[in-house]
Design brief:
The protein is α/β, with parallel strands linked by helices. It is about 40% helix and about 15% strand. The strands form 4 sheets. It has a 7-stranded mixed β-sheet, sandwiched between helices. It has a 4-stranded antiparallel β-sheet with strand order 11-12-15-14, covered by helices on one side. The protein binds pyridoxal-5'-phosphate. It is an enzyme of class 3 (hydrolase).
């Protein structure tokens, strides 16, 4: 088998690593030496200091401070304080974001309050528009809200529905005068395709819809400017590109113009105007804290700050430039080195349409990913047949990309994936 001509060499890439302004960030993560981690879009690695911070919460703030730590250690204010830090990464202002709950729950709150606003402004709009290719939880939550509203309104004709954009229904076609809310993922979790946030938000507003952006695969990965785009709501994860730790609390951003209009229906006491007055009926907090619900997982929340502090030290423009350089390199090398093995690129090559992960389709995708993991290159698999690789500029080098592709080529050439052990499906792929 002949080796295709290479446009770059490992030596060139070693040179690129020497000139990489982000290279020092690698030291800020605790990662095994002999591993190339291409899954930071699913679970970010451990920022140095996060374990110590968690130990401090447990051994000092909890053990010694006990209940006093709600005030003295700032536990109670953490959702807002961390929300203000996170806001800077997504083009939000102070007072527009809280770190809390899960992305799924925050989507519920965002969609429900956007629907409530529309019930007042444009009650004939009863469609929640999203896309078939969206992350499943986003579709399921929209269905849950629609089902609930319909069960409450069973006697009337006021039926809500979830409408899905797909290859048969474009965004332009779908955005008619029945749409109340458009909820999209900025970067698609499977393909890495990225919507133009400015253009889509403007089109939705022109059509009379409110817009919710899911930033799960965008926050910390690509520059996001929610206020610049004039978006309405946004939600996202902290355990992916923001490196907050497994299951760390998510975030919700609410444009200041909507904060005073409707509260979300999970009216727990943390969202109350005065939680410790223990009033016998609900009054929503007059700011973004009305999007909280109940008591937060403080140890996990404390670790979120460690990931945020790393992200805030990096210039997002530099991160984006390196992300595009690494994803371009990965796409080119896979094409040059693995071209004959039937991997089909499903990520857009156009920079403006690409997030920070790269995906390929292959009928044996699952087994190939298992074989890669066996060789110390961690990517992941998503149905149907998709091999997904997260390209994270803060701790990946140019030579990492080269080495990962060489291992991929070797696995494909030797068919090392073609053994029963690599076909056994784990619960989490
Ligand atoms: C990862 C991801 C989620 C995860 O939601 P959880 O509630 O944290 O499980 C939601 N939406 C998108 C688009 C995602 O990529």
């Amino acid at each position: 088998m002949s080796t295709p001509a290479l446009r770059t060499s490992r030596t060139d890439l070693q040179e690129a690593d020497k000139n990489d302004a982000l290279a020092p960030f690698r030291e800020r993560f605790s990662l095994p030496e002999d591993l190339i981690y291409l899954d930071g879009n699913s679970l970010g690695p451990h920022p140095v200091g996060a374990a110590e911070r968690a130990a401090q919460v447990i051994n000092e703030e909890w053990s010694n401070g006990l209940i006093r730590s709600w005030n003295d250690a700032g536990w109670f204010d953490m959702p807002s304080r961390l929300g203000d830090k996170l806001s800077k990464l997504i083009g939000g202002n102070a007072g527009e974001t809280v770190v809390t709950d899960t992305t799924s729950l925050n989507l519920f709150k965002a969609i429900a309050s956007a629907v409530r606003i529309q019930q007042q402004d444009a009650p004939e709009r009863r469609v929640i528009l999203t896309e078939r290719d969206n992350f499943p939880t986003d579709i399921y939550i929209a269905e849950g809200i629609s089902d609930f509203l319909n069960s409450v309104n069973a006697e009337t004709n006021e039926h809500y529905e979830v409408r899905l954009i797909d290859e048969d229904l474009s965004l332009e076609q779908a955005l008619d005068d029945s749409v109340a809310v458009l909820a999209l993922s900025h970067v698609n979790y499977r393909t890495g395709a990225m919507w133009d946030m400015d253009a889509v938000t403007a089109a939705a507003h022109t059509a009379g819809a409110l817009v919710i952006w899911d930033l799960a695969h965008a926050a910390g990965a690509v520059p996001v400017d929610l206020n610049g785009a004039n978006a309405d709501y946004a939600v996202g994860c902290t355990y992916k590109y923001l490196n907050g730790g497994p299951g760390s609390p998510a975030f919700i951003w609410v444009n200041a113009r909507h904060q005073g209009r409707f509260w979300q229906p999970l009216t727990g006491w943390w969202s109350h105007a005065a939680p410790f007055e223990m009033a016998d009926s609900y009054t929503a907090a007059n700011d973004v804290r009305r999007f909280l619900c109940g008591t937060q997982p403080i140890t996990s929340m404390a670790m979120v700050e460690c990931g945020l502090d790393v992200a805030l030290d990096a210039d997002m423009g530099t991160v984006r430039d390196k992300s595009l350089a690494l994803t371009d390199l990965f796409i080119t090398l896979v094409d040059e080195r693995c071209g004959e093995f039937g991997l089909e690129l499903i990520t857009p090559t156009n920079h403006a349409e690409r997030g920070s992960h790269v995906s390929f389709r292959h009928p044996e995708g699952y087994a190939i990913i298992q074989a890669l993991i066996g060789r110390g290159v961690i990517g992941d698999y998503r149905e149907p047949e998709v091999l997904r690789f997260g390209i994270t500029p803060l701790y990946l080098s140019y030579t990492d990309i080269w080495d990962a592709v060489e291992i991929l080529r070797d696995i494909l050439e030797t068919r090392a994936w073609d053994v029963p052990a690599y076909r056994n499906r784990n619960a989490v792929t």
